[in-house]
Amino acid sequence: MKDVIVALDFKNRKETMAFLEGFKEGIYVKIGMELFYSEGPEIVREIRKMGHKVFLDLKLHDIPNTVKSAMKSILRLDADMVNLHASGGSVMMEEAMNACREEGKKPLVIAVTQLTSTTEELMQSELLIDRSLTETVLSYAENAKKAGLSGVVCSALEVPVIKEHLGEGFITVTPGIRPLDSVAGDQKRIVTPARARELGSDYIVVGRPITRAEDPEKAYKEIKKEFLGV
Ligand SMILES: O=c1ccn([C@@H]2O[C@H](COP(=O)(O)O)[C@@H](O)[C@H]2O)c(=O)[nH]1
């Protein structure tokens, strides 16, 4: 099912609740490091209780044993979607899935491939990855699928190649969304909501174009309409 996920990149509960007050119905939100580190696990429970679906974006990346244990803690929060970095390796991803099995929980577990703020040039010159960005993202996605994950975080630009090689059912969650009139900021691999739809994204993640809009609910509705095409 396709949807728009709103990144709640706020510094505290107060700002977050003020933003959510504008929404009459439950929406799909993303709680990332800024809000989670500031408010702790309780903010996840509270937002779920309000009827919103939650993508808990903590991007786990550590040794396999630590990721397995951290995933067990995270699973207690019953988020709908959780994630980790594919660059942590296959064993790390397998251990995250073992945590889900042992706890009897089935959130969507997705792997970050290359951050949408990364360019091919940066990846090759700073991370010393000597392949094209597309090849790298696809290889990370293949590892994620083999480890049993549900999908990946990538740019919408890489969705066609991922779907072609790994199937329509392998989920693509795509940040780096910028409507025509918005500023890119630190994002590099960007597309509009309409282009993300054409490229086949399952979920688009949108932060500042909504949270910093004059009328966030209106911006959300316009982006949703452009992405879903209805
Ligand atoms: O590759 C990635 C992975 C995660 N993100 C997160 O998505 C949002 C995007 O916010 P904008 O304000 O729309 O840029 C943000 O929370 C990132 O942490 C990403 O952008 N790229």
Automatic annotation (TrEMBL):
Keywords: Decarboxylase, Lyase, Pyrimidine biosynthesis
Record has RNA-binding as a keyword: no
Known catalytic reactions: orotidine 5'-phosphate + H(+) = UMP + CO2
Annotated substrate binding sites: 9, 30, 57-66, 116, 178, 187, 207-208
Keyword Lyase tagged: yes
InterPro entries, per the entry: Aldolase_TIM, OMPdecase, OMPdecase_AS, OMPdecase_bac, OMPdeCOase_dom, RibuloseP-bd_barrel
Single GO MF descriptor: orotidine-5'-phosphate decarboxylase activity
Pfam family, one: OMPdecase
Chain ranges of the Orotidine 5'-phosphate decarboxylase domain: 3-223
Protein name: Orotidine 5'-phosphate decarboxylase
Encoding gene, per UniProt annotation: pyrF
